[in-house]
What we know:
Blueprint: H1 15-21, H2 24-27, H3 31-48, H4 53-71, H5 84-96, H6 109-145, E1 150-155, E2 158-164, H7 165-190, E3 192-193, H8 209-216, E4 220-221, H9 225-230, H10 233-259, E5 267-268, H11 287-311, H12 324-347, E6 350-351, H13 353-361, H14 367-376, H15 381-398, H16 407-413, H17 421-424, H18 427-432, H19 442-460
Parallel strand pairs: 3-4
Antiparallel strand pairs: 1-2, 5-6
The chain binds arginine.
Arginine (ARG) is lined by residues 23, 27, 83, 85, 109-110, 113, 317, 319, 321-322.
Amino acid sequence: MSKLWGGRFQKESDRLMEDFHSSISFDRRLYKYDLQGSMAHARMLGKVGIITAEEAERIVEGLKEILADIEAGKAEFSVQAEDIHMNNEQLLTEKIGDLGKKLHTARSRNDQVALDVRMYLKDEIIETIGLLVELQKTLIELAEQHPDTVLPGYTHLQRAQPVTLAHHLMAYFQMFSRDVDRLKDCYRRTNVMPLGAGALAGTTFPLDRQFVAEQLGFDRISENSLDAVSDRDFAVEFTAAAALIMMHLSRFCEEIILWSSAEFAFIELDDAYSTGSSMMPQKKNPDVAELIRGKSGRVYGDLQALLTMLKGLPLAYNKDMQEDKEALFDAVDTVKKCLMLFRPMLATAKFRTENMARAARGGFTNATDLADYLVYKGVPFRQAHEIVGRAVFYCISKEKTLEELSLEEYREFSPVFDEDVYKAIDIGHCVSARKVPGGPAREAVEKAIKRAKQEMQSFLTGRS
Length: 464
Ligand code: ARG
């Protein structure tokens, strides 16, 4: 089959080389954007008189038919036509004859591929934001169910201070909220229309780039033709944002895995999101959470691949850049799939709140409150810390909790202790006293939830 660029060549391509440099196996997923971009380009060529209005019309009709053919599974792509851009052009020429050969006037695959990937990514960013927002809604719903569910907060994975499940869940809300923000920001820079950059140096034809941008829903047109065809920052940015989403999901998954162990027993995953063992009949494994944790590595790899692919490239387009697609597609697919599974896994999990409360009561999570109690009575904090440290040491040797010490025992450590010490170290009180903005007390978390809902609302009405 003759190549669209065959004129300068005397020999056929090597077969292996043809396979090697062809991208149709993966860039076929851009078919819709490629066709829409071509329709906008053809209409513009017609508008400015580079082709006639009738020609533009016939090209657009042909492209629409190809779109329908592809969607009906009736179009055949070929490796010889290399990529989605030349496959679509070839299909067009097969359909409408020589007129199809006018479509590529004042355009290069270099600006075309930049356009297609940007159009694709704009849609995927919106989808990913949608999935994040769904997850955020679930977090709010769960947080509202657990304003008083106490569990230990940890540092170094050692029980530290009591918090509430609502507060813990809302911590993740914040992470995903930053993720949404990052994606919105990335969207702005993806929303730039590169057609007109040509291969690298623009074109002599009097294009109406603005008209193309408007038809395709782009905010603005690219400023520099060299940059337009060599910029993949938007793909890197998305993948970096995706890597952060995966990191957040992975940390959450790690907690879910720990929490569903018998040692913690804070959570029981629904059967629909767990798996068994082929050998051990008793097992119920948190595979979904483990897989999401594992898949974070893929997305970090995609980011690394993109950055490394780009780092040594001289301006402008280089074929290396064809490697952007599989990494980007993988990041998009992975992060979306993980979000799609994580949300229902979390929403259907049973929280074992009794176990959480029991764990919060052990492990001296109220020791800081005991020290603070002394501070309120006038003892300098450092001294209070020392006193409580000795009391804890004493408790450990007696196998007691702080609540179980008698007032006499307390007074061995400091005469300042009084009856009201027991209220100060009550776990519920330890939480409710932390009403500092951003803290775990019910009223502080309720305010955080209210703000979170406002944030969601303004997002949904587009006012953020
Ligand atoms: N398939 C190519 C890619 O994905 C399209 C651009 C090809 N341009 C070129 N000059 N060979 O990057």
